[in-house]
Amino acid sequence: MTEVANQTEPKNIRELRAERGLSQFLLAAHLETSTANISQWENKLHRPSRRSLKDICAFFGVTPDQLDLAPEKRGGGWPRIPDVPNVQTTQLDPDVR
Predict the structure, then answer these.
(1) Domains in the chain and their CATH numbers?
(2) Cα–Cα 20 to 30 A to 92, which of 25, 30, 42, 80?
(3) Assessment of whether the complete model's pTM goes beyond 0.90
């Protein structure tokens, strides 16, 4: 058997939670986080923090490589919004209201 064949597919936190019969509420309580965070991680909207990832791995007995998580964002988070010129009300046309 090759090494690739021995590797298992990464599992989503939802799958791991369901295998243990846990609700999002119970998992959130154990990890000391919110159910909103659990939902965001399960739906791959956000990645857990390093601390949370460590706690998740310890709780489920997996490594980070065995978790199916949202891809890491490169480049510092949210895209930059271009600067909008400051328009003062005195610059507006008085006939437009």
Answers:
(1) 10-69 (1.10.260.40)
(2) 80
(3) no
